[in-house]
Amino acid sequence: EDEQIVAEIMGRRFFPALITHKTWEGFHFAGHEIRITEATDCYGAVVWPSALVLCYFLETNSKQCNLVDKNVIEIGAGTGLVSIVASLLGALVTATDLPELLGNLQHNVFQNTKQKCKHQPCVKELSWGIDLEKNFPRSSCHFDYIMAADVVYHHPFLDELLLTFDHLCKNDTVILWAMKFRLENENQFVDRFQMLFDLEMISNFPSLNIALYKAMRKGRMKA
Length: 223
Description:
CATH superfamily: Vaccinia Virus protein VP39
Number of strands: 10
CATH class: Alpha Beta
Shape: globular
Radius of gyration: 16 Å
Strand order of the largest sheet: 6-5-4-7-8-10-9
Strand content: 25-35%
CATH topology: Rossmann fold
Distance between the termini: 31 Å
Structural class: alpha/beta
């Protein structure tokens, strides 16, 4: 079953018949053909399989996870694929990443959502752990969903990532988080994450070494 679903997820990706001066990949989600421009010199500007897993979940579970008019923020949006799919599914999306990635992110989001979405998504800088209250004040920022795909890997900013999850997450916020396990760092982060949040694995793809999680603040999952 894992391999069958993985084959369907990966089947959503396609490549151009002709190579042009711009490198791009294509994807089929939410009834649209999505073209993503990538930059191969930067981790954050490449579409990783975890993003496809999260997009596939959003599309195939659109009834129980209804994004229409929901306020969604994606952290570590990278190329913007997850933000684009959430926008096409009716959400009001804020796509965030580091300042050096915003140009490519803005290009992809704009090109794939213009006049196609109920709400035009916005792109905003978010450096994990930095100026969180200034840029995303708790009093005025309320997100129904926080989305993240492959934000945990071998980097020195796991403390800041956890701080960012904690700052953005209200009591009724749902976190949807797709994660590829590579090194022991990932397991340690999950342990620390579970000190603040109830975590439920909702999909698992051993052939990709990717798990998809749903999380809420401690004690809120059942409610």
